[in-house]
Write a structure and sequence with these properties.
A hairpin with a 2-residue loop joins strand 2 and strand 3. By secondary structure, the protein is α+β, with helices and mostly antiparallel strands. It has four helices and five strands, in the order E-H-H-E-E-E-H-E-H. It is globular. It has one domain: Aminopeptidase, CATH 3.40.630. The model has no long low-confidence stretch (mean pLDDT about 95).
Length: about 150
């Protein structure tokens, strides 16, 4: 398998694999709004600081990481928004091998850290711990819905 930096020409393949993974168990995300899906993938892959990496088995995408490069006072980080391994390749060591290749690539390109978030209730949580990620106890994620039009 081989690490590949994915570009705009890979968007269709990436979108298909992303949808296959995240509309299934355990996420069950509803990506039926294709305009929203296209906008989301473009947000992750088409910005000036985007970095999308794929793990290829020939022409087949087996895994992907979509994120952005962030320059921070402690060094340059790769902030991963989405990471997945396709169903066919899950539980075969592909994700761990892919992470190893990502770390090598980032290190060679002056990127010192990988930052990501996940839910504690999904298998990805254990996967990241198993692969050396440390939970950051002092960092908290917050979210709030914007006001509805009726409240404005």
């Amino acid at each position: 398998m081989e690490l590949k930096v994915l570009t705009g020409s890979d968007t269709e393949m990436l979108t298909i694999k992303f949808t296959e993974v995240f509309t299934a168990e355990p996420w069950f995300d509803d990506w039926s709004d294709t305009d929203q899906l296209k906008a989301y993938i473009a947000d992750l892959t088409m910005q000036s600081n985007s970095l999308t990496l794929g793990y290829m088995d020939g022409d087949e995408l087996t895994a992907a990481a979509m994120g952005r490069i962030k320059h921070w006072y402690t060094g340059t980080e790769y902030c991963v928004d989405e990471f997945f391994v396709t169903k066919k390749y899950q539980n075969r060591g592909v994700g761990s091998a892919f992470l190893k290749e990502i770390r090598k690539y980032l290190s060679c390109n002056g990127i010192t850290h990988i930052f990501l978030q996940t839910d504690r209730t999904v298998p990805a949580y254990g996967f990241y711990l198993k692969n050396g990620f440390e939970e950051m106890e002092d960092i908290v994620s917050f979210a709030i819905e914007t006001e509805s039009r009726d409240e404005q």
